[in-house]
Every structure is written in C-alpha cells, then in structure tokens.
Amino acid sequence: MSNNTFIKVILLLLVISCMSVSWCRAQTTFIPNAILNLQLNYDNNFYYLPEDEISVTTYLVQPGFEIGLETAKGLLAARYTLDANFYNQSGEDDFYGHSGLLLGEFELTDRLQLDLKDRLVYTRDPAQLEPIGTPASREKYFQNRFAAALSYHFEPKITVKGRYENWITDYRDGDLEDAVGNQGAISLIYHLNRSTAVDLKYQYWAMDYDDTTSDYQSHLLWLKSRKEWRLVSLEAGIGYHERSYDDHKLEDNDTFIYSLELDGASKSGKSRFGLSALQNYNYLGFQNNDYYKAYIFAGKYDYDLTMRITAGVEASYQNNDYVNTRRDDDIYAAAGDIGYLIKEWLELVFSVSYEQRDSKEELKDYDRFIGLVELQFDYDFGKE
Asked: CA-to-CA distance for 355 and 46, rounded, in angstroms?
C-alpha cells in the first residue's frame, strides 16, 4: 500500500486528536459497538466469464467494531471489519480483506464547520471501486479515499463550501494499473427555507495512472436543487462535464450531465421507495479506451411485513457508451431480499440477485446469479 495512504490516515488521526483536547472539558457520549457478520454467498459466474462459467461459494466472516465520541460541537467515529473470505473453489486461496472508515465532524465556530472522512478497503469486490464504474474483475486492490470539507454559513441563507478529495487505488497483482486521483470543489448553496436549497458547484478532477492508461483532467459545473416534504425528498441536478486526456490520440470529450434522486415513505412508515437517474462519465479506468458515458436508472422498494420482517426489491439499468471506441454495453440487474430481525442487535437476511451485461464486444458479455444468506450482529455496549 502507498505511503501516502498511511500519511493521510495519520494526519487525520492527528487532527482529530488535537481537536479533541477541547472536548475533554465538555460532556461527551461514548458509543462502542461490536460487529460480526457471517455470510454464505453462492455466485454461479464468479469470474464474469462469457461462457464456461465457474461457480464459487464464499464463506465470509466479518468481525469488527464501531466506536464514536459525540458532543454538542461534533462527532468522532471509526469503523473497522476484517473481511475473511473462504472459498470452496480449489484454485482459489482464501483471502483476508479489510474495511475501515474514519469520520470527523467539527463545529469550529457558530458559522464554520470542518468535515473529515477517510475510507480504506482491501478487497476483491469490483463494485467498491467507484460509484459509476462497472468493472468485471476479481483482482485484489487497496483503495483509500480521503476527503476534507470546510463550510462557512452566512446566516441565514447562504453557505460556501470547499472540498478536497484524494483517491489512491493500488492493485496487488495482475495487469491493472495503480492510480491516484485528486479532486477540488467549491459550492455556493442558497437556502430558500429549511426544506429547500439550490447548490451551484464547480469540480476539478485529475487522474494520474502509473503506466500506459492516459491521465486526464475533468471540469464539471453543476446546478442542483434539493426539496424535502414530510414524506418525500427530491434532489435534481443538471450540469456540464468536459474531459481532456494527456494522450493526444484520444479525443477530448464533453457532455451535459444530470442526476435525480427521489426518496419517500408511506404515512405509516411501513413502506419506503427510491428512484434515481444519472448521466456522467466514469472516473476510474483500467486501461486506455476504458472510459465511457454512463446512463443509469434505478429503483428500490422496501416493505415491513411485520415488526420484525422486511422485504425489498430493487432493479437497475445502465448503458455504458465508450467514448473512444465502438464498444457499447447494456447492464441489467435485479435483486430481492427478506430480513428477519431476531433481536434488536441480530438480523437474518436472505437475498437473490441477477445481473447481465450485453456488450457489442462478445467477450465482455456475462450473466450472473447470486444467492446469499447472512447473519448480522451489531451490539451497542453503550446502550443503557
């Protein structure tokens, strides 16, 4: 793992430690939680193969903890799990991953707030690489995402927010390239009232790869609006994204972008739903010509059958239109789950899901069926 990863984690801990000195004089709440997840996962196409699929059953054991310290002026929190994967496939060595999260929220003055976040994973799960990407790989990788945001509130209507984010992706084996990404953003937020806000945001994103994949720079301009009602919330945005590549053989790209998130619940609270739509470029590529414009549409619905039993369904469609090749992918996914709350701190979950990728490049096609049983233990030792 890169030394920069450790440096950022240490800096975050030092900042939190220094700022915590003043907290010792204030009333604090300490929040300790123990975590243990046990999972049985069957995947009929573990390696995303177009044919001759190989099924793998994974036994996942995740012991971990959550700790937090909260006062009237802020919050410190940390979460860690060891992700021990045991496979029934003879060619697969057992894999021990890690997931860690550090959070800091500090009210420096009545108008100035600092937010810090650092997320570190060591995993084989390609879904965790980035929100828009759809990679089909089982390579092991470290990824660290560090973010710091400073917000100043001009009472009562205007907030100015600056944010810096750094991604480090480090592959352990294989031909995939390590990458470092840096993002800067500034937002001007106008609060029409307590439930409505308009956000004008500029973002700059630079991605630097270790080998042949072209570095790039992106400029994004967003206009977003958020509205909350008693049972429903809506966030909608439109914008413009321009991307230029260091490799002059690749054409620079630009496009209009949009996002939509609609969440709601019934009056009784027994049912909840969410709808979302997004158009944007992906952030992290694997090799040259691995960038695309994604169109994503998704929906989900959850219903409490009883006080202890909850069922849910979700579905999504994503089209990836590759910007410097003729490749075009359609990805369909659907899932259903049911959870039984045995105790307040213990839940049993069953889920099934199906995913299919239909690509103009036949070797990129695949379909997968996944069945999962999970026992989730999350006990709050600080609860009276």
From this structure: 12
